[in-house]
Amino acid sequence: MTALTVLSALETATGLNADVERTLDLIGVFAFGLSGGLLAVRKSYELVGVVALATVTALGGGVTRDLILGATPPVAFENLWYLVVPLIAAALVFVGHEQIDRRLHRSVMLFDAAGLGLFCVTGAVKAAAFGVSAVGAVLIGVISAVGGGIIRDVLADEQPSIFRPESTLYAIPAAVGATATAVTWNNDWYSGTIAIVTAIGVFALRVAAMHFDWRAPRPVSRSS
Amino acid sequence: MTALTVLSALETATGLNADVERTLDLIGVFAFGLSGGLLAVRKSYELVGVVALATVTALGGGVTRDLILGATPPVAFENLWYLVVPLIAAALVFVGHEQIDRRLHRSVMLFDAAGLGLFCVTGAVKAAAFGVSAVGAVLIGVISAVGGGIIRDVLADEQPSIFRPESTLYAIPAAVGATATAVTWNNDWYSGTIAIVTAIGVFALRVAAMHFDWRAPRPVSRSS
Amino acid sequence: MTALTVLSALETATGLNADVERTLDLIGVFAFGLSGGLLAVRKSYELVGVVALATVTALGGGVTRDLILGATPPVAFENLWYLVVPLIAAALVFVGHEQIDRRLHRSVMLFDAAGLGLFCVTGAVKAAAFGVSAVGAVLIGVISAVGGGIIRDVLADEQPSIFRPESTLYAIPAAVGATATAVTWNNDWYSGTIAIVTAIGVFALRVAAMHFDWRAPRPVSRSS
């Protein structure tokens, strides 16, 4: 409540709205970069593999979103931070992957969940701002959030984790967040504060799904 | 003959041309959605996997076509039917996959062949209407027809069926149909009737290839 | 030195600049087409697989570059040579793969290195000409150079060779070449001659990496 008031005041006073979104977006880029780099280490890749997989995972969802929207060249090719942040993530993994994997595993999962929460919101907002229909905006929000991870797994010749039954709920929190964003946008309720609240909600839903091992329903089957 | 006359009359009388193409297009989307959903079931995916693979298979070829043409955002993100139809296919697979797999296997293959026939035509037409050269239109027609299936197999970590020797002719009928479409378009013979006839021809060629187990030639080899 | 003088004179006298780039670009397309076709033979694909994999490998990097730049439809769908050259490569592989694999293996690797050198330059130049930032142009140059090979390996259900430790330096020479190109472009030193010199430099670096089995550094590890 107080936090929301402060945030609203900050937005009004400083016009920081875009900067808040950009900052949180880059946190998501950083988290996804770590996850890509760590998978590269697990696959015994060397420097090029670590940098490439970290960068592709960090930027893949946003680049796909921008290509679908026709917003070319994608922001990742124009704004230097979108290249620097994945490189920092790759460097951290390259030097300190043993520490990250052992002690920071939980932090990485939390960052990943934060990225998921934010990308589904910023993806849906960007799509809506481009005049895409509400349903299209939801779809683009989900693609932004899960695209980087899918590209990471395909390039590393792994089954995409989004499809694995044991991966717990991943796409569903993103779909909920993107839907909430599209609905608030279309009713003129959207604001930076709403964006943060929605991202936090998706983050919480994702963390709860991991903690309680929630699973999506399986296809109806008579025999099992 | 009578059917063609009726169709031509319908086109002239009602301007239904676009609606006929759209309807047949959505039948193709539905068929590809079923094939994606069924592969997800075979891979033991849960709800998210079934919905995601059905949607991606159904829409992948058309979205790729639109991105190549610069027709952004792709029609699949703007027209609600392109999202509703794959979801219906996914729901049918989710609830009734045992019935579909056992009793409707032939129907699915026939729907898939129908989708192949139609997507190669509508893809080539859309490309030609965007002013792409005849050869480019053929290529885009083929990509529209086979793209969804390739994306389906890559995401499911399978060897794309288009490459498997035992998959019988798949891309060749699509290339024939796209070529026929581009040629008729460039000579101003194209019409909705021609489109339907071409799609039916591709469909028949594909079904015949499956029935008689026709194979494409293999690389020249002295030893075997 | 003499060669450079001749080239410069040629450029000035004939305005052949674009033609030189186009010709070298198509040599790269041809080389990548051979590599794709040969992988298809190794995977026991038939005609469709050989043609498809040769074409996708030859054109994948350039199409990705053009989609990122919003240069739609990509040049590969407009200029007939970009379709004819991969088909020639596919036909050569289809008929003569045993000769190519045995006697021409070295030639293929050299052509591939030439393609790498040229695509990183032409990709970066095209990006810079579209007004992309220098860093973005470097990234797009690298993607142009390595994109076709990655798509080839993903479609063939192989681990992308760019990630394999034993593949020796591949992306790094491309990054060096793209950087050199972006720097010369932004300082108005760029010319067709510079392009050729840079491409030759990347080619030499790649060949040296293969010959001396240079490897990229591996992630820091205490235990091994």
Describe it.
- 3 copies of one chain form a homotrimer.
- The first copy, chain A, has 224 residues and is mainly α.
- Chain A has one domain (25-211).
- Helix content of chain A is 75%, strand content 0%.
- Chain A is built from 8 helices and no strands.
- The first copy, chain A, has helices at 2-14, 17-42, 47-69, 81-103, 105-129, 134-155, 171-186, 192-211.
- In chain A, helix 3 (47-69) crosses helix 4 and helix 5 (105-129) packs antiparallel against helix 6 (134-155).
- Chain A is globular, with a radius of gyration of 17 Å.
- The mean pLDDT of chain A is 82.
Question: Which secondary structure elements does this structure contain, and how are they paired or packed?
Answer:
The structure is a homotrimer of 224-residue chains.
Chain A (H helix, E strand, L loop, with lengths): L1 H13 L2 H26 L4 H23 L11 H23 L1 H25 L4 H22 L15 H16 L5 H20 L13
- Helix content class of chain A: over 70%
Mean model confidence by pLDDT of chain A: 82
Global shape of chain A: globular
Q: Which chain pair has the greatest contact?
A: A-B, 34 and 32 residues
CA radius of gyration of chain A is 17 Å
